[in-house]
Amino acid sequence: MGFQTGDDGGPRWYIDFRRNYSRNDFDRTHTFVQSYVYELPFGQNKRWLNSGLGSKLIGGWKANGILTLMTGTPLTITASGAGLNTPNNTQTADQVAPVQILSGINTIANGGSEWFSRSSFANPVGARFGSSGRNIFNGPGFFNLDASLFKIFSIKERFKLEVRGEAFAVTNTPQFSNPGTTLGNADFGFVTGAGGARSMQLGLKLDF
User: Fold this and answer.
1) Of 1, 72, 65, nearest to 31 (Cα)?
2) SS3 30
3) Among 28, 80, 148, 178, which residue has the fewest nearby CB atoms (within 10 Å)?
4) Neighbouring-strand partners of residue 147
5) Which residues are CB-contacts of 125 (< 8 A; sequence separation ≥ 6)?
6) In sequence order, what are the beta bridge partners of 122?
7) 100-106-112 Cα angle (round to 5)
8) Residue 63, Ramachandran bin (φ over 0: left; ψ between -120 and 50: alpha; else beta)
9) Separation between Cα atoms, residue 151 and residue 61, nearest integer Å
10) What is the pLDDT of residues 125-181, one digit of tens each?
11) Threshold 0.70, pTM exceeds
């Protein structure tokens, strides 16, 4: 909880300063991070393929990775503050109905749907702040899995060769940006950006 925007920003409201106090912009309610290293059960002294050519080719490989799961960051629904005559203060929308999280992606014109119920908000009437507050619900969550498979080959007593294959965002799961939050804008309520494209690389490392 805090009063300022961002990690090192200023308040949204200088009038009625207490109105700023809410969840911080970077707050994620739940975060789970798991890292692991797993030695595959093949090769010498293992359960399967513990002798012969299969043991030499498949044995000794290890897998590791990092799994990250996070809930989304909070959203503030803003509106035009032209009627307020209060410079450096943020106008928020009136909340006129319960907010429904519909989890839609992309705009209706492009075959998508809204992330939240846009009809839950309206422009305030008169010279007053809107009824909705700061950071009242969350945007899309975050999922990412980075993983690698590697093995160390002993060439001679002095030389070892590590063969490694790595994949970032291995599941190719989209990491959606937050929807538009300014009432009246074309992208209001729509998620139009994403990241998290999978990338892969191979590497060799010689130790001596």
Assistant:
1) 72
2) coil
3) 80
4) 65, 167
5) 94
6) 94
7) 75
8) beta
9) 5
10) 988 999 999 999 999 999 999 999 998 887 877 888 999 999 999 999 999 999 999
11) yes
